[in-house]
Amino acid sequence: QLQLVESGGGLVQPGGSLRLSCAASGFPLDYYALGWFRQAPGKEREGVSCISRSGGNTNYADSVKGRFTISRDNAKNTVYLEMNSLKPEDTAVYYCAAVKLFSVCVTWYGMDYWGKGTLVTVSS
After folding, report:
1. CB neighbours of 75 closer than 8 A, spacing ≥ 6?
2. What is the DSSP letter of 57?
3. To 10 degrees, the CA torsion angle through 75, 78, 81, 82?
């Protein structure tokens, strides 16, 4: 059973940066495509970014393109989300999730494993 634990959330001012990490255990991470999702208060969960098993393919929601970067280090069993130029509307609980196929991840549905999330608050 793959287990995912997010970290790195916190309070940041508009225009600031944060890097989220998601550490995996229980199974080699390179078996899975990985995604970052978020859920803002009172809103539905939405997909943010996906990365393929090798890291060679990525995709992003339009709302974060050019500001967020997903990456992974399979040797460390960790996936990252670098977030720059943060806006108040980026405030949400951020979750990482895993699924075997990158083609599934990019639909934003069908993820098999989820972490418990880390809160990001963008406010002055």
Report:
1. none
2. -
3. -50
> Which backbone phi and psi does 38 adopt, to 5 degrees?
-145, 155
CA 90: distance to chain centroid?
12
pLDDT in tens, 34-85: 999 999 999 999 999 999 999 999 999 999 999 999 999 999 999 999 999 9
Nearest to 71 by CA among 13, 29, 101, 115: 29
- State the average pLDDT for the chain: 96
Residue 32: burial class (beta carbons within 10 Å; 0-12, 13-18, 19+): buried
Cβ pair 58, 82 in contact under 8 A: no
